[in-house]
What does this fold into?
Amino acid sequence: MTVEISDMTFDKVAIGPVSVRVYKGADFMKGAPVLLYFQGGAFLDAGLRHCPLAECLAGTGAIVVVPDYLSPMGGVFPKPLEVGFSLFSYLAKKRAGLGDRRSQLIIGGEESGGNVAAGVALKARDHYAEELDGQVLFSPLLDPFMGTASFRGAEAIGMRGRWSDGWSHYLSGGVCHPYAAPSLCSRLAGLAPALLVSSQDDPLRDETLAYAESLKAAGVAVRPHLLPEGLGWPSIHHGALADTGAWQAPVQAQFSSFLQGAGHDMQTT
It folds into this structure.
């Protein structure tokens, strides 16, 4: 499906105007799901940039809104989360002219954006329990200790130093709240259904799967999916790879299936 891309500004968000890039499948249907999607960048990259995953997901017929969530207030916790939650609240009430009353409202993100999305889902559970229909987390950066076995592969793709710098920046306010590091959160019950995707060759694989297990143990409907290695998946967070990207089709299939089952018991092994 051809995807149309346009830039706009949400002027009436509680924290002030936020620039967003909107990806729409050219043939999206009435009642298309609206996905508020936080792009990665190790908590360091502000501004609107092309987002391959947003374009991929819009190709399923979704309306994907990618905000510049670092520029309005900076990249130190809790500021990005405040921007993200304000955007979620705005879309929950207004939909900003995107979709309609039948549209599912989903949040998601990759890498550091996946962290922010997971934090927004936690806060949404605490404030807007009925408004969020699901969360999609693609190799979310969740473990500030960077201590998983798979993370040892971060050096090989040139990301260990960048992720270390990113965590130091994000947590430089001196707070490690559960919203900032969802992998450390002990209260996960009641969260929106979740799709978590990573790949065998991604350094963030283990923290992705561990969070999926924690969600499942808390009774959250969760669908973890691990892509095979060699599809170029770590390129979503700019990992240096020789592989060409071939992850789009399986990711679209997982996302479409998740949307069909959102709100139902989707726990899988």
Remarks:
- The two ends are 31 Å apart (CA to CA).
- Confidence is low (pLDDT under 50) at residues 263-269.
- DSSP finds six helices and eight strands in the chain.
